[in-house]
Amino acid sequence: MFGGYTEVAAYYVDNEPLSSSGYPELPLPEEYIPPYSTPDPWHQKAACQEDFILIAEFSEREGPKPVITIPTNCCQKAKNGFDLNDFSVRLMSVDFQTVAGDSFALSEDSYVLVSETKYGIYAYVHHFTLYDSQARGFVRPFCMAFVTPDHGKLIASHKEMASEFSKVSHCFKYGNLLLFVKDMSYYLSDLMYTKERFSDFEKIREKEKENDDENPQELLLLEAFNNPNEDHILESVTEQGLATAIREVKHILDVTTVLMNDSDMEQRFRTLEQKSRSTSESNEGNELSSENFQYSCSLHSESGQPWTDAEKVAQHRPSSVNDLEDSWNMDHYEMYKPRVVRTTNKKGFDESLRTLHELCRWGAKEGLGLLRGIHRYFSRDMTTLHIERRDAASIEPSPGLLTIGRSVQLNFLSCAGPLKSVSDEVTSPCSLVSSPSGNITQRWLSDDTLASFHSAESFLSCSEGASSDESKRSSLDRKLSEPEDVAGCASAFSSEYTVVRPDSLDFQSAVLFPQVPVISAADHITNLSTKSLGHGFLSFVGRYAVTPHVLFSLLCGRPLVIIGTTRKETDIRAMVTALCCFVPGHASHSVCAWLTRPLKLTDLSKFRLVGMGREKKSMDQLVPNSLKNYVSVLNMETKTLSCPAYQGGILTEIYKKRKAFRHEKPYLSYIHSVLYDLSHKALFYYHAFSTSEVAATNEITNSISTAERSRYQFLSNKFGSKLRLADCDIKIVQYLVEVIKCQQIQFLHKDESFPGAPQPNIKLQPSKCTVFKMS
Amino acid sequence: MATASPNPSPTALSVPSSSLGAVVLTESATNHEYPVHVINDSPNSLVARIVLCYWDNIMGPCVRHLWNSEAQGMHVPQSALDYIATHTLSGEITRDEDDPTIDFRFFLIRESNLIVTSFVFGAIGGNESVVHSLSIVVRQEHRQRCLELQALMSSWMLRGIHHLRVYLEKETGDTSMDRFTPYLMQFIQMLTSLNESGLPGRISDCDIDTAFNPDCGCQFDGHFLCRAISSHLISARCSVVVGDNPNKVNKMIATLGLFLDSAERQCSRFVLYGNKSCPYSPDLFLQGFLQSASGELNTSLKDVHLSQRPTTLIDLTTQEVKFSCQPHQHLALQYRAVKRKLNELWTGRADNTFPFRSIGAKIILESHFYLLPFFSEMFHTFDEPETLVTNLFEEWKLLPPNIKQHEAYISQFISGLDRKAMTLIRFVECETNCGQNPLKISVKKLRQDLSLKVPGDFSIVLATAEKLKPGIFHFVTKGNNIDPAEFLDSF
C-alpha cells in the first residue's frame, strides 16, 4: 500500500519530456508556478497556531486598532512577523457597513470571510457599529474576528458563527443603545434648554443694543473672554443651527427609541447588575483584587496597550471593571440638569473616547461572556466539531438513543422508520419526536449560546433542576441517605432474568426518565481533565489484570460495587470515575461515587456502579448476603473481585491494548471506538433479531418454558455468531438492546395516553460468580 | 450604470463539449471602458457575473473585465461593480504585487442583494505587476448554496488564476481574456451541471435507488460493490463511475453517495448525457460518464491529477475498480499536473507525452474505454483486502427487508469510521506532540496498535482521518518514504 514516493518516482521516464526540444527558448517563469507546500495538519507554519477572537475598532483618532483579544495572550507566540495592529488595519481598512443617505440611519451588521495566506490564517469578521454621542457622526465602527489557521473550520461553521456573533453583536448594541438613547435624550434637553436660554439671550442683547450707545459688541466679547460662561457659548449658536440640531437629535431618537423593545435582554442586564452588586458588597474594600476583575480578556488603552495603573489615574478611569459597573444603573436615571451646549464643534479633543465597556455597559459584560463561550466552542479542532455534529444529529428520537458512560453512541430508531418496539401498535415516531417530555436534549437546545451546547462543561453542569452553584458539582458526588424498605424480595429470584416490581418506589417521579445530560465522545476526549469521566482508566488497567471481568459486569448491566474502608475513599472514588465511562444507558442508570450505608434491593434499580465504604468492622454488612448473587463486588481490602468470568475477545483486546497506548486520550478514544462498534452490532441485533416476531414473543412473556427459553438463547447465539460475537460479547449486545427497550417502555409509560402500560421493573441476573485475586 | 457600446464586436468562442458560448461587448464605467463577455449559459447557472478588477496607479480600483451571465439576466448596477473593486482592492494597497499567494474574501453587498467571493492576487496589468481581484457574483438567495460549494469554487478559481497569470504575462490584455474565457465557461458549466443533476443533501430524497435498497435488490456483484466502496473511501470519497447504462451508473453513484456527507453530496452529480453532457470536472466527489457501444468514453480523464483528491474509477461494464494513485502520492502528482498544465499554456501546445513508463502488471494497458490510450496508465487496479466494508455488507444482508432507512445505517457506519479516525489522530498527536516530533513507529506497528491489521481497513481509516485532519495521511506515511520535495526535484 505505502510503497512510497520512490515507487512513484520509478514510474517517471528518465528524460523529462517537458524539457525536450520544440519548446520556446524561455521557460515558464518560476513565479507563475504555485509553490509546492507539504501538508501541515497541525498548522505549524501558520503565524498563530491557536484560534483567537479579536475585537478591533476604527478609532477616529488613531485609525484601526485592536481593543480586546480572547484569550489575552493569544499572539505572544505569533510567528512570521505577524502583528495584531497590522492585522487590525487589514480588517478595518475597508468599510463594509456603508450606509447611503445624508440623515442618521442605523447600519446593519455585515460579515466578511478573509484570508491572510501569507500568515496562514483565516478570519470570520463581523462588523458592527456602536453609537456614541461624543463621536464624530455619532458612530464608532467595531469588528469582531474569529481568527483560525484552519480554513475548513470557517467554511464548515460559517452559519453557526454568523448566528453566534450576531447574538454577541446584539448584546453589545443593545447595551450601547440604552446608553446612546439616554445620552441623546440628555442632549436634546440640553438643546431645548439652550434654545430657551438663547431666546432670553437674544432679548437681552436686543435690549442692550437699544439702551447702549457705546460699542455693545465689543463689550459682550470682552465679558465672554473674561468669563467663559453660558453667554460665551450662546454667542456661538444660531437659531437655525439650534433648530437643525434639535431636528437631527429628534430624528435620531425616533430611529433609536423604537428599537428598545428587548425586555429579555434588559432583564439579563438587571440580573448582571444584581450579581455585580452582591459580589461587590461581599468584596467591599478589595476592589482591585483579581476576583473582582471578572474578564479574562485584556482591556487595552487608547494606545493599544493594556492600561497601567498610572494611566488609569491620569485618565480618571475606573480602576476595575467593577468600578465601571458601579455607575451602570439600569433602573434609576439620575435627575439630569440641562446645560447650555454648542451645536457645532462641540467635540472636546482633550477627552479620550469611551471604551467598549463604557459604551455598552452590561451589554459588554454579557457579550464578552458569550464571546468567551464562542471561543471555547469553536477553538476545538475540526475532528471534534465534526464528530460532535454527527452525534448531535443522532440524539433524536430520545428513546432510541444509546449512550455508554453518557457518551452518545448511536440511535436505534433513526433508521427504523416507525418505532419498532414491543408495543409497536401503540406508538408512532411522531409522538416520540414531538413530545417535549421525552426530549433529553431540551436542556441543550434551550441554551442561548453554543458555549454550553454539547460541551463537556454542560455534561458536568446541567443536571436537571440544579442551581448554578449546584450544577458545578458532579452528579457522581450524590450521596444517598434516604431510608427505603425493600424487604421480602429475595424469594422471587429463581429464573435467569427475574422480574421484581418494587411498588414502594415512586417511578412516576424524575427517576423514570430523568433529563440526564449527554456528551459527544469527541468532546470528552478533547476536554479530558482529571475530573472527566474515565480519567485514570489507563492506570486502572495497568494495575488490575481483572479489568475484562470488571468491564463485562458493567457492560452487561450487572451492578458493580467497589468496597473498602473509609480510608480508601479517595481511591474508590477515583476508580468509580475511571470506570463510569463503561456504564450503558443515560435514562435508567446511575453511578454513586461514595455510599456509606448498606446496599438495598431498590438500589439495584438505580445503580450500576457504586463506591462503598465503612469502618473495617462493619464493612461486611455493606453488601447483604441476599444481594451478593446479583452484584459484582470488587473488594479493595481483600483485593478480590467476585463476578461472572468474561470469556470473549473484545474486552480482552481492550486490556491488551494498554501497552500500545501510552497516553490516556488516545486510549479512551480507542475505547469509545470499540464501544461504538459494540453498539453498532447491537443495532443490527435489535433490528434483525431482537424485534423479530419470535424474539419479541419470547422476551415479553415471563411464562415461557425452559425449552423455549433455551431455543431463544440458541437462536440468539446463532445470530450473534453471524455478527462475529463470542458468548460473553453477545450478552453485552443483548444488554445494550435491553437498555433501549427499557427506554422505550419508560417513555411510553410516561405518556398519559397509555395508563395501562407496565410499571418498570428491577431486573436481576443471578450468575455464577468466580472470585479473582487482583494482582 | 454601464451601457453596452453601440457597435459591439461579438466574438463567438467555441468550447468543446459545451453548449455555452460567449460574445464580447464593451461597457463603460464613469471614467473608463472595459470589455464584457456575455456568456450564454443555462438558466440554472449559479453565477450572475464574474468580475476582474485591478489597481490602476492613477484611477485606483477599477473593473478590468466582466463576464456576464445572459441567462441570469440580472441587472448588476455599476455601483455594485465599483463596490467590488473598492472592497477587494482598497485593503491591499500595501500588498507586494509579486507576492505569489492568493487571498480570498467572501462578503455580501446588502444594497444589491449580492454575494461575492473574491480572490486577490498579483498579475501583469499593462506593463507592470499590479494587484488584481477576480470575483464571483451570486444572488443573495443562493448564499447557502454558495457556501456549500465554496471549497469547490475556490479550488477551480485558484487553478484558473494560475492560468490567467500565465495568459496575462504572455498575451496582450484582450487576447488573454479571450483565452481565459473558455476556462470560466467550463467553471460555470460545472456549477450548472450540479444545479441540474447534482445529488440531493439526502440520498433518500432522490428517485434513484441504491444498492442498499432492500426493495430493489443489489444488482451489483457483492465483491465488486465492496471493492468499489472501499476504494471510494480510500480515495477521499472521490470517484468517477463509467458504464453503458445510465440507470446503473446513477445507481452506483447514489450508492457511493450514501458514504458522503451532505456537503460532499452537493459537490457530486449524476451522469449527464445527450444535450446535457459535460466533460470531466476535477474536484467533484462523484460524477458519471457513459461509454459508447465500442467502449469509448465521452470525455477525457486527462485532468484527473488536477483534482484536489485522488480518484477511484469504477467501470460497471468490466467490473473493474481502479484508482488514480495512492493518497499519499497524490499531492506530488497534483503538483506535477499543475506544472505541466501551466507549461502547456505557456508554450501553446498540448503535452501529449505521458510522463509514466509502463512497469508491467501495475499498469493496466489493455483498458478499452479511453479516448487516448496512454491515459489508461493513469489508473491502477484496486486490490487491497479489507474487512470493514465487507462486514458492513454482510451485516446489512441480515436486516429484514422492512427496514427502510438504509441511509441512516450507512451514516452510522461512517460515524464508526470517524471514531476510529479520531483514535488514530489522537494517537499520532500524543506520540508526536502534535507533529512537532516525527512519528517514530512504523505504519505496520501503528496498524497493530489500532487493531487495524488488514491493510485496506487501515487505509480506509487513514483516509477518513485525512478528511478530519487534512495532511495527516502524508504525515503518517512519510516516515517510510522520501520527502515529496526531493521527489519533486526529479521533475
TrEMBL record, chain A:
Q: From which domain of life does this come?
A: Eukaryota
Is Cytoplasm included in the keywords of this UniProt record?
yes
Bias category Low complexity: which stretches?
280-291
Looking at the record, the residues that make up the UDENN FLCN/SMCR8-type domain are 43-741
Q: Which residues form a coiled coil?
A: none
Q: GO molecular function: any one?
A: guanyl-nucleotide exchange factor activity
Q: Which GO terms describe its cellular component?
A: cytoplasm; guanyl-nucleotide exchange factor complex
- One BP annotation, GO: autophagy
UniProtKB keywords = Autophagy, Cytoplasm, Guanine-nucleotide releasing factor
PROSITE patterns attached to this UniProt entry: DENN_FLCN_SMCR8 (PS51834)
Q: Into which family does the record put it?
A: Belongs to the SMCR8 family.
What is the name of the protein in this document?
Answer: UDENN FLCN/SMCR8-type domain-containing protein
- Where does this protein come from, organism-wise? Capitella teleta (Polychaete worm)
UniProtKB/TrEMBL annotation, chain B:
Quote the cellular component terms of the Gene Ontology held in the record: autophagosome; endosome
Record GO terms (molecular function): guanyl-nucleotide exchange factor activity
Q: Which domain of life is it from?
A: Eukaryota
**Which Gene Ontology terms describe the biological processes this protein takes part in?**
autophagy; endocytosis
Q: Which Pfam families match?
A: C9orf72-like (PF15019)
Q: What is this protein called?
A: Uncharacterized protein
Q: Which organism is it from?
A: Capitella teleta (Polychaete worm)
